[in-house]
Each structure stands twice: as C-alpha cells, then as structure tokens.
Write a structure and sequence with these properties.
The complex is a heterodimer of chains A (428) and B (177). Chain A has helices at 4-11, 18-23, 169-177, 182-185, 187-192, 200-207, 286-293, 321-326, 336-346, 363-382, 409-412, and strands at 27-32, 44-48, 51-57, 63-67, 81-83, 86-88, 95-96, 102-104, 122-123, 125-128, 131-135, 158-165, 212-217, 221-229, 234-243, 247-250, 258-267, 270-278, 399-404. In chain A, strands 12, 13, 14, 15, 16, 17, 18 and 19 form an eight-stranded antiparallel sheet that branches. Chain A is of the alpha+beta class and 428 residues long. Chain B is α/β, with parallel strands linked by helices and 177 residues long. Chain B contains six helices and seven strands, in the order αβαβββαβαβαβα. The longest helix of chain B has 13 residues, at 119-131. Chain B starts with 14 loop residues before the first helix and ends with a helix. The chains are: A alpha+beta (428), B alpha/beta (177). At the A-B interface, strand 13 and helix 10 of A face helix 1, strand 6, strand 7 and helix 6 of B.
Chain lengths: 428, 177
Amino acid sequence: MLRQDINELLTRTGPGTAMGELFRQYWIPALLAEELPENDCPPVRVKLLSERLIAFRDTDGRYGLMDEFCAHRGASLWFGRNEEGGLRCAYHGWKYDVTGQCVEVPSEPEDGNFCANVRLRAYPLIKVGDILWTHMGDPAKRPEPPEFEFARVPADQAYSSKRWQESNWLQALEGGIDSSHVSWLHKSGLRDDPLFKGSKGNDYNLGDMKPFFEVVDADGGLFVGARRNAEEGSYYWRITPWVMPSFTMVPPRGDHPVHGHFWVPIDDENCWVYSFDYHPVRPLSDTELQAMRDGYGVHNKYVPGTYRPLQNKDNDYLMDRDAQRRGESFSGIWGIAIQDASLQESMGPIVDRSKERLVSADAGIIKARQKLRRAALALRDEGVTPPGVDTAHQRVRSAAIVLPQQESFLDACRDAVTVRVGQRQVSV
Amino acid sequence: MRPILANSCAAAATTAEARYRLPILPQATWRSSRVVALDPAAAEVVRRVAAQPWASATFYTLAGTVGTGTAGTGTAGTGTAGTGTAGVLYTLDDAPYALAEVLPGADLAVLVATSDSGAAMAAAIGAECRTRSIMTAGLIIGEGPDRVVSALRPYARVLMVTRDEQDVAEILTALRA
C-alpha cells in the first residue's frame, strides 16, 4: 500500500515535478539510433517526460533534440525539411540548427539580428551503443555519458529494441524488479523461448514456485536476490540489479545473452520500454539476432512501421484462450514482453497503489519506491545528487548462481554483479 | 478471431475511469503483525516505529528493559510465560509473554536486527513462525550482521539488508500492519 500523495509524487514526471526533476539528472534513452539512420534523414517526434520534442540528424551527422514547435507560430517541425545543416519549418521557412538556434528567418532582412535572438529549448543527444541518449537537466550538472555494459560492448555483441507501453513508467519498472512472477507468468517461455530455454537454472526456476527474497542496498539502487531450492544443501540464486531511476537487468540463463530494460516516461500515462540483449564476451549469433528481431525473449513483434506492439490492448493482446487452457501459455498471451505489458497495462494508466495488497515478497518494490521518494525529495529540498548518476553505479551485472545454503548471495557474488570487461557473465 | 466489443475492451477513456475499483472490504484492509527487535539497538528502532499509529501491529523486544542488553527474567505477565528467555518476548512496557502467546493470530512477523546478538532467538522465532505458517520478514539494519542473516535465511520469506532504519516503518506501512 502506498499513500496517494506518494503515488502522485512517484508517478508524475513532467517539468517541475519532483520525480521529473529526478529523471532530468540522468542520461536517459531518447531514441534508438536506427530511428535517425543517416544524415539529413526525416526528423522524429519524441515525447519524453511530458515534453514534446523533435530529434534530427543534420547534414554533418550531428544529432539534435529540441522543442518540437517552431518559435514563430507553433507549427510542428516534424513537417519540416532537414537540409543543409538544419531543420526548416515547412510553414514559413524558419530554420534551426541542432542546438535549437534559429539560423534563418526568410521574411527578415538577411543581415538583421532577429533570428540570433530566437532559440528553441534543446537538449544534447549522444550515441552510446545503439541508443541515442539525452540529458534534460541543468547543463552545469551534466554527468558523464552512461557506462551501462550493454551500451559499451562492441556493436556485434548487443541488440536493443523499444516498445510503447500504455502505462505509467513506475508500474512497468516494478515488473522488472519483481522476479517472483517469472515462474508463473513466463513459465512457458522458460520451456520454449529460444533466448531462455535450455538452461539448468530453468529447472530450478520451475521446480520451486515459492522463492525467498533478499534485498540489499547498493550505491546506485538495489540488488534483489531470489532464492530457490537447488540440489541438497544448496540454493539457486537469481540476482537482479536495479540502478536508479529505471534500469534493471534480468539474471542470465546458461550462455544465452544477458537482457534487461530501461523504463522511460513518455508522459504520465505512457512509457518507452527499451529492451536489450548483450553478451559480454562474444558476438550475438545470427540465430540469436533473428530470434530477437522476431520478438522472442524480452523483445516483441510490432505493428508494421511503428514501435507499438502488434499485440496491444486494442486487440486484447491476441490472447489465445485455447493455448491457455492447454497449458502452452500460462496467460494465453504470446511472448514474455507482452505477457508483462498486458498485465501492467491492465492495472490502468496510473495504478492506484493505495488499494494494493502487497506481500513480503514485494519487499524489493517497497524498497525501490522508498529510495525513489527519498532521492526525489533530497534533490528537491537539498539539491542532493541522486544515486545512479555516478557512472560507477552503472557498472553492474545480473547473475545466476548455485551457492551452499549458508552463503550470503552478495558476499559470494560481489565480482559476479560487477562489470568485468572481457569476462563472461556468471550464469547457470 | 472474435471481435472485441467496446464494452469488453481493456481500453479505458481516462485515468480516473481506469483507476476505479470496487470498494475494498473493510475486514481485509490490515494485517495482524508482530514486530520483534532482536537486539538492544533494534529495540530502540522498534520503539520509535511503535510510536507511529498502526492498525494491528504489536511490538516486542527480547530484553525486559530496552537498551540494557540484559535479557528479562521471564516472569510471566499472563501466568503462562516464564519458559526461559529463549521463549519470552517483552512488550515495550516490559510485560513478558511467551512466544507461544504472542504468535497466535498473527499474519506477519517482522524481525529487526542490528547485530548478531539475537541470532539464536531469530532462528527460534523463525522456526515457530514456519510451524504456524506465519509470513516472516527479516530487516537487518547495517551490513555487519551475518550470523543473524544466516539464522533467518531458512525461515524469512524476505530478508532486507538496509542502511536505513526507516525501512521498518516502510515495510509495515506497505504491508498494512
């Protein structure tokens, strides 16, 4: 249960809100790099943290992210022409460069000062990995670029996708922290999904449907250990890192690529779910890449030409009651990503947490909410830089391991949950 | 595929409409909880938490006098305790109760520790909770204690190792104690 005023604080991320200001301390994913594939390509509308923006890549390959609307009369620059080093409004020809600076107003004298005094709000847009990241906060407090391992390995070792989720960002994130649902909702995926199946860990996962949890503070967020019975005298641990504000990783299975998510608010009722796979020491195989493109693992299929999932709330996620009845799928919905999305969207655009009934297995979620609230208030009231901004906090990994029963998961796994360049993930 | 009709579609027009839920039945809103401090410093934490309003939480320590670190004598408050310090808990006003008196009717037991001194009792309470099918959570404040973590691990569905004593209140609030 969460008081309504705290729920409001955590779920509202527009300009001037406490949580919105928290998000603006970080580099966050703004687009996939594939959305701006070449110089002078069509601009892309981007809504982030309730701000409507336009992204483009100019003639020299520079990325820009700025106010979507022309300073003249408010027309959308999405209709504009991306040409000769800037984005030109289709209405009256005003032109802007990647910094938002107006560089040409055709109706004004060429040597006048008018356009020098016109500038759109703009944010930096940088490519790290196959994602374009932005920082929407105070330029004077701009952190170092992100250091998450998935974005730092060689290009052939990683794959990222994104999907539109029609819910507030927090209920999506909470699904990434809560690993107790995996044995239920995703049980068919553990058997059948080409990016999940075949690991010994899956047998432990499916053999013990009542995991125990240990939640441990980390500098950048939390480590959540889910413990299941393994062989006599040992436990199978799955360790999920959460880095504030919204980065989570799924514990690995066998030698499959490691996957995880970034949950980014579009506005208060929608979010982008960035989903990634990477392998720390080897290129992804053609088979793995094809499976990702086909929507397996943490990825999904799309309505053609969009980032909206093919299975969405307008078609009841193409639920197959017969498959559910036959036991092929616990929820009757195909694919791990949309199994999550269907239930999280079913909670409503912003779930009313004052009515929920948490259990002790939800301790990770409880603690994450508390850390977010604390950090947002400390930033607002005292200017304290929140956890997760420091790039050292971002060098974490998920892990899966079998340990003797008496061992503490974090003591035994300090190395396993830390990025070690050139070393493979710890996995079962 | 069958068509999805407007009246059965998951889509909702507004956040307010989507938020609407049938009223919660009043008897289901709280959870009968027992909070036990496993060492003197934890008792101080628990005393502060207990000062807040709770629907159905009761608070206990292992020692008769908070902060002394001395175990109580086990004098029975109700005439049925006195089974020895290993089986006795004390309310915050020092009334002793046998563990067997404290646990009946509980939905949730939250054990709070800041050191390893209460490890043996942690295991005893955890085992009793498991026998009685009481959901058990352990909160360890600070990263030092490890024997108490090991003692609780077989019994506590959740163990939280935290730097923040306010997590005790957070957990109790979230679980409707």
